[in-house]
């Protein structure tokens, strides 16, 4: 871990860009992309080292040792990719969401279905407990995607909690952090704070996210070390449960306007045959196959390296 050359760090940045592109779509998690691109456990381990490095290593051994301990080059390359993607692709993906939703969701649907197979294959032995964990994960994720959104709130303790929960969702495969903020009713408050440069609200959400990231990464690292198969089954379940959220043909029952953008908060999945708009069935199937194939192409490339 950490012994990469420049080209390999550029590959990590590209993986970060893919994570950022997924996080822009409400319903697709960057954690899913991290998992299928083979960097999930390294990401969790590296984040987990931050607290120890800051508290113990930094005062005793200095910046260089702390940077090495947190796998700093890897984290910097990855988060640079995520930031680049959000800055450059956010507008394009938002345009696709508004103008070609069926085609965009079809691509991600194929990609996420392949992710289920990819993650499930990493489970070394299937037992009753593993199957139960898979069903539990699927039920939790499905339940979250069906929850009605809470009214907008600007209470600071609530925003701290929102930041913590959203970042946990971002690093969990299958559940989108942006979607959690919409559900909690904090999306508009956070968006307005960014536009108005309200440092108190931005700082509160950031501290919540930092707290959530460091504490949740510790829990995930412990789970991977002690119950790897059960953890993988739970994560596979999360991805399966999120499939209803990214079904390409849906009818919007309720939407809200955030920053002049209409964001659907309550939707109903329908068959392509009863979809009120143009179902674009052929293109949808082709893009779903493209998304599905992309995962296994990436896997083959990783295996060659």
Automatic annotation (TrEMBL):
InterPro entries: VCA0040-like. The chain crosses the membrane at residues 74-93, 102-120, 126-144, 156-187, 199-220, 281-298. The keyword Membrane applies. Keywords: Membrane, Transmembrane, Transmembrane helix. It comes from the Bacteria. This is DUF368 domain-containing protein.
């Amino acid at each position: 871990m950490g012994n990469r050359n420049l080209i390999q760090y550029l590959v990590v940045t590209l993986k970060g860009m893919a994570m950022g592109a997924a996080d822009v779509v409400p319903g697709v998690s960057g954690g899913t992309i991290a998992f299928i691109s083979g960097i999930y456990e390294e990401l969790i381990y590296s984040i987990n080292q931050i607290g120890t490095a800051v508290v113990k290593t930094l005062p005793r051994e200095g910046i260089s040792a702390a940077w090495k301990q947190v796998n700093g080059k890897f984290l910097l390359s990855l988060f640079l990719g995520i930031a680049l993607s959000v800055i450059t692709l956010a507008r394009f993906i938002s345009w696709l969401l508004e103008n070609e939703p069926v085609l965009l969701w079809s691509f991600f649907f194929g990609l996420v279905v392949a992710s289920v197979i990819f993650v499930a294959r990493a489970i070394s032995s299937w037992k009753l407990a593993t199957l139960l964990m898979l069903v539990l994960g699927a039920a939790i994720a499905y339940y979250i995607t069906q929850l009605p959104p809470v009214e907008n709130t600007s209470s600071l303790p609530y925003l701290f909690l929102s930041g913590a929960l959203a970042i946990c969702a971002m690093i969990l495969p299958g559940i989108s952090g942006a979607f959690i903020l919409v559900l909690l009713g904090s999306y508009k408050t956070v968006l307005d704070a960014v536009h108005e440069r309200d440092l108190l609200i931005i700082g509160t959400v950031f501290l919540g996210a930092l707290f959530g990231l460091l504490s949740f990464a510790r829990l995930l690292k412990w789970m991977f070390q002690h119950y790897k198969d059960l953890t993988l089954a739970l994560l596979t379940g999360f991805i399966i449960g999120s499939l209803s959220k990214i079904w390409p043909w849906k009818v919007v029952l309720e939407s809200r306007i955030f920053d002049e953008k209409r964001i659907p908060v309550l939707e109903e999945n329908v068959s392509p045959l009863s979809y009120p708009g143009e179902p674009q069935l052929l293109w949808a199937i082709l893009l779903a196959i493209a998304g599905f194939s992309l995962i296994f192409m990436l896997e083959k490339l990783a295996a060659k390296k």
